[in-house]
Design goal:
Shape: globular
Number of helices: 7
Structural class: alpha+beta
Number of strands: 3
Strand order of the largest sheet: 1-2-3
Radius of gyration: 15 Å
Strand content: 5-15%
Order of helices and strands: HHEEEHHHHH
Largest sheet: 3 strands, antiparallel
Helix content: 40-55%
Length: 153
């Protein structure tokens, strides 16, 4: 299959082969690992977007650094009220999108989310599961737009 970064594709495949109960347990494990996606001391970022949106229970921070090779490195902070599923998607996306370009992230179709969380959770929590991807794409769009403007100037 093409269209997804290799790391994300591996995660998608893992979830697709799991029975529903194991899928949920694995999502909880990813949610527990979301703290590992927070910015580390000394890291520098090109853009930061920290805010509370209507769709989310608490403040979410998205941090983007693009290295010399044009690869995106994402970090995220989540307030204590952020739901488990949002935490899980944070860890999955930060891991799965590591070393892709901001443009590749923008071009990423969102259909893989159902393949990870399952159609039942998508139906019940539709707003929540797309939230993190929307925020990540938003910061990448700002970055790409700023790069284009810099090239024109």
């Amino acid at each position: 299959m093409t269209g997804y970064p290799a790391k994300l594709n591996k995660i998608i495949h893992l979830f697709e082969i799991l029975p529903e109960d194991e899928r949920r347990e694995t999502l909880v494990s990813y949610a527990d690992a979301a703290k590992k996606q927070e910015p580390r001391a000394g890291e520098q970022f090109d853009l930061q977007d920290i805010r509370k949106d209507e769709e989310c229970a608490d403040t979410v921070g998205v941090y983007l650094h693009v290295d010399e090779e044009g690869k995106a490195h994402l970090r995220m902070t989540l307030g204590p009220e952020v739901q488990t599923l949002t935490r899980a998607m944070t860890a999955i996306l930060c891991k799965g999108l590591q070393d892709t370009t901001p443009q590749e992230i923008l071009d990423l179709p969102s259909d893989f989310i159902t393949r990870i969380v399952g159609s039942e959770l998508v139906r019940v929590r539709s707003q929540t599961i797309y939230y993190v991807l929307t925020r990540i794409k938003g910061i990448c769009k700002v970055y790409v737009d700023l790069q284009r403007m810099a090239q024109v100037a």
